[in-house]
């Protein structure tokens, strides 16, 4: 089976990184829309157009299912919209529900970070209204993290000052959980640890989205198997199970070197 995963850029590699371990039987097509990154600073109409093009491309490549590995794109591509296509399509959403359920009994607040289009969208606000019965969730847009990720800037000397400025009006000492509501944000866990004065738990929607994909595909194929232990030792990022495309064009050897650097960073972040 072949699973398509796409994002506006390199953020979705964090979903692919997890999928390679969780679904060992699958091959993958990864599509980074490098021509249009970042989605979080585009209009909803523009993003919808990009999604249409990418899904059409993946259908032509005969993928069996698609993961929209981008919270921004998912906030635009509603469930009803995704159901119009002839294959399972699973999206991402900030893991607010997971964070509230897992940390409700601990004192402290929950901070949810995402791109501006996700933070401003009705979908996230409706989700928070539904699950946050104790009013312990705060929202913040961190758009520059996407640009840092796309430029391979992981140096804490550059990332930490940005975070300090962006979060200067938030009670950082009160937070117990930090929801990474953009797949690009998974590259910066070391910098987040420098910002929060107390121990912080990181929560993302990657595993949840993949489990939903597996659940839906199990209805059609009995060969899907979840690899137990998502935190097992990380396998080599070099794999012949993935074909990569940048905005519809198969990547070059130089692009592969770049991707390998991202996967190595994710290897490191998986240990935090």
UniProtKB/TrEMBL annotation:
Substrate binds at residues 7-8, 39-40, 71-72, 183-184. SUPFAM superfamilies: Aspartate/glutamate racemase. The keyword Isomerase applies. It is an enzyme of class 5 (isomerase). Pfam families: Asp_Glu_race. The active site is at 70 (proton donor/acceptor), 182 (proton donor/acceptor). Provides the (R)-glutamate required for cell wall biosynthesis. Keywords: Cell shape, Cell wall biogenesis/degradation, Isomerase, Peptidoglycan synthesis. GO terms for molecular function: glutamate racemase activity. This is Glutamate racemase. It catalyses: L-glutamate = D-glutamate. GO terms for biological process: cell wall organization; peptidoglycan biosynthetic process; regulation of cell shape. Coiled coil: none annotated. Its EC number is 5.1.1.3. The gene is murI. Pathway: Cell wall biogenesis; peptidoglycan biosynthesis. Belongs to the aspartate/glutamate racemases family. InterPro entries: Asp/Glu/hydantoin_racemase, Asp/Glu_race, Asp/Glu_racemase_AS_1, Glu_race.
């Amino acid at each position: 089976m072949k699973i398509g995963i796409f994002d506006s850029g390199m953020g979705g590699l964090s979903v692919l990184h997890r999928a390679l371990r969780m679904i060992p039987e699958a091959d993958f097509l990864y599509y980074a829309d490098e021509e249009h990154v970042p989605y979080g600073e585009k209009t909803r109409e523009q993003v919808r157009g990009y999604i249409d093009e990418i899904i059409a491309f993946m259908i032509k490549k005969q993928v069996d299912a698609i993961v929209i590995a981008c919270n921004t794109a998912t906030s635009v591509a509603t469930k009803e919209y995704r159901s119009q296509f002839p294959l399972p399509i699973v999206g991402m959403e900030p893991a607010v529900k997971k964070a509230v359920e897992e940390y409700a009994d601990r004192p402290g607040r929950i901070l949810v970070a995402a791109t501006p289009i996700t933070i401003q969208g009705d979908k996230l606000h409706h989700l928070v209204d539904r699950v946050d019965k104790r009013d312990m969730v705060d929202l913040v847009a961190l758009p520059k993290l996407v640009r840092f990720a796309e430029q391979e800037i992981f140096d804490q000397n550059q990332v930490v000052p940005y975070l300090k400025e962006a979060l200067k009006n938030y009670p950082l000492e009160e937070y117990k959980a930090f929801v990474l509501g953009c797949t690009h944000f998974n590259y910066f866990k070391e910098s987040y640890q420098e910002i929060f004065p107390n121990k912080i738990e990181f929560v993302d929607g990657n595993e949840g989205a993949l489990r939903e994909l597996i659940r839906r595909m199990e209805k059609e194929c009995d060969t899907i198997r979840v690899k137990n232990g998502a935190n097992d030792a990380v396998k080599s990022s070099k794999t012949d199970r993935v074909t990569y495309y940048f905005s519809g064009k198969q990547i070059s050897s130089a692009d592969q070197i770049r991707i390998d650097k991202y996967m190595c960073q994710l290897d490191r972040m998986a240990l935090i």
